[in-house]
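Summary of Year 1 activities. Much of the first year was spent building the evaluation harness for sequence design. The harness presents a backbone, in tokenized form, and records the residue chosen at every position. We chose the following record to illustrate the format because it has been used consistently in internal testing since the harness was completed.
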């Protein structure tokens, strides 16, 4: 816990410090800390930080509310398309607070794609904070900065556009007049529509500039993604994909901005392009990033131009192996379920898939296409891995232990006497790598049990 006395004046006397250090009861400790300040007035409340101008023109302005605001400084971080950056400079990461009126300002347009920022985050910290935790393009703000802050707030330049498709909420990528990866393209929310046959993503010219489309699921504790099966069904046929300009790339992939050490947990469930991204001879591919290692990608050709395809990957732990994970890719005919291609890849990982994992769908240009392009996705579905149930006899009944590696919030436990008719027994909370257990009576004869997602 940070030292309160390092931040607030006046300091307690030596005798008061000795007295405080000898106390163990939390309530009495709190009372005496307050008493240590009573001689010079009341204990000061925490400061408040306010953003007055969110920086659309390059200068963020605000003020700190405190009787002595000059004791503080402001650390500013901007979010540029889910990457975070300290401003104004790494060498000058703190902005001074005016001691007279608490105002502060910070230049956030100091290089790169700063003008493409979507969000500004500000932290009120002690003015002598050293070192200052820096944001250098990671997918999350510095944890050390959040813990050092006495107050914090944020503002967005513009609210993101959200659509609903296939049971999920999706963010629409929109970069205005800023180029962004993949392919350093311009991205527009106006090229995304949900129609009766599915989600339409397009690349087309808007205001004289080619723009592309991408959507991503919104991380949600109600519908988390993780270990399990990701399935994307296309409405576009193989022939329609083949008719796209060779410069276009279409893909569906997992991505976690908080997992740089594991290549952002990116698995390309399907990627199609006749460009150098994949190749004209085998334009489909599956990839477990980083793609530079040829053993981490699988390329294939589908000759049937009339077929619509379903692409899936199941990610699970390898039983009996420590920190070993398996990615099982399958491509099928979406109508007949006939297998068209399959591939498996295994790797050692120190962590599971990150909790902020999202599914992205896009179409983009690698090079200069000569005509518009469009891809239609019929559906997306994530399914958890099967739960494991173990029954342990005990004096008070049968103890059922439910285990699952998927981030499922709860399991419904069902009972049957004949494996045909099932009745609900209970609902137990669970989670990735966690167990849930409960007790059932064994006095009513043989019974069967299963766990299903409610």
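For this record, the design step produced the sequence shown next.
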């Amino acid at each position: 816990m940070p030292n309160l006395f390092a931040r607030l004046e006046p300091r307690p006397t030596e005798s008061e410090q000795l007295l405080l250090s000898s106390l163990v009861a939390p309530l009495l400790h709190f009372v005496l800390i307050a008493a240590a300040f009573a001689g010079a007035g009341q204990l000061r409340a925490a400061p408040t930080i306010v953003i007055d101008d969110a920086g659309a023109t390059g200068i963020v302005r605000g003020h700190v509310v405190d009787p002595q605001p000059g004791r503080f400084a402001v650390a500013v971080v901007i979010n540029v398309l889910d990457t975070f950056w300290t401003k104004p400079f790494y060498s000058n990461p703190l902005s001074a607070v005016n001691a007279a009126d608490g105002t502060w300002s910070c230049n956030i347009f100091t290089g790169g794609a700063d003008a493409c920022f979507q969000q500004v985050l500000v932290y009120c910290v002690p003015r002598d904070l050293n070192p200052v935790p820096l944001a250098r393009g990671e997918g999350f703000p510095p944890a050390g900065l959040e813990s050092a802050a006495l107050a914090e707030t944020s503002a967005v330049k513009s609210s993101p556009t959200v659509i609903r498709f296939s049971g999920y909420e999706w963010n629409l990528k929109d970069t205005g007049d800023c180029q962004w990866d993949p392919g350093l393209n311009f991205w527009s929310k106006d090229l995304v529509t949900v129609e009766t046959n599915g989600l339409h993503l397009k690349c087309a010219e808007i205001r004289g500039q080619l723009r592309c489309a991408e959507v991503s699921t919104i991380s949600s504790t109600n519908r988390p993604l993780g270990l399990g099966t990701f399935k994307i069904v296309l409405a576009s046929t193989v022939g329609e994909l083949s008719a796209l300009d060779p410069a276009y790339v279409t893909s569906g992939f997992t991505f976690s901005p908080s997992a740089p050490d594991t290549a952002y947990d990116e698995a390309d469930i399907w990627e199609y392009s006749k460009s150098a991204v994949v190749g004209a001879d085998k334009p489909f591919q599956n990839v477990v990033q980083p793609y530079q290692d040829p053993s981490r990608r699988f390329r294939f050709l589908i000759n049937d131009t009339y077929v619509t395809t379903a692409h899936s990957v199941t990610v699970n732990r390898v039983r009996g192996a420590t920190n070993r994970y398996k990615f099982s890719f399958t491509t099928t005919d979406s109508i007949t379920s006939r297998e068209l291609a399959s591939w498996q890849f295994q790797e050692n990982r120190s962590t599971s898939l990150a909790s902020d994992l999202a599914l992205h769908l896009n179409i983009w240009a690698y090079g200069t296409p000569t005509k518009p392009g469009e891809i239609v996705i019929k559906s997306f579905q994530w399914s958890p891995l099967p739960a494991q149930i173990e029954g342990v006899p005990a004096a008070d009944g049968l103890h059922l232990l439910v285990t699952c590696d998927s981030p499922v919030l709860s399991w419904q436990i069902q009972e049957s006497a004949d494996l045909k008719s099932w009745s609900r027994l209970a609902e137990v909370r669970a989670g990735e790598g966690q167990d849930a257990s409960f007790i059932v009576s064994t006095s009513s004869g043989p019974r069967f049990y299963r766990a299903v997602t409610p």
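The mean pLDDT is 84. Quantitative recovery figures across the full test set are reported in Table 2.
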